[in-house]
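Running co-folding for fe (ii) ion.
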Amino acid sequence: MVDLASSFLLECESLDLEHQHLADIVNQVVKVIDDGEAEKCADLVSEFVKSAKEHFANEEALLVKVGYPHAKNHQDHHKSLNAKMDHLIEFAKMAGVNHIARDSLRKELVFFLMDDVITTDMDFKSFIEEKAKTDNA
Ligand SMILES: [Fe+2]
Ligand SMILES: [Fe+2]
């Protein structure tokens, strides 16, 4: 069960809600696997990838808007995840009939969310916080 600790919150409501939505889908994937309904993974993971791509685009636009100096690096990081997302989709398609694909999917999806999506965003967390403070001052 993925539960986003408050230390992972960006204090930016729209991005935090999108992260939570992604975590919710990951939890659903873990649940259908546990419940022996892994054939449902394909639809869930394609929803996850679609939501992740939309989230990346929203986040990139926000970073440019607030003038984050490393916005391009973060955009490149998101782009570098395309191949991983393709793998997740392939694992999910096979998850109903193949236990290795099922185990890989569960492990890779949780890592993807926590390491590649959420943790890398901590790079701009303090920038956004400072920006919010000065804007509200
Ligand atoms: Fe993000
Ligand atoms: Fe990001």
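Result summary
The domain at 15-129 is CATH 1.20.120.50 (Four Helix Bundle (Hemerythrin (Met), subunit A)).
The chain has a mean pLDDT of 94.
Job closed.
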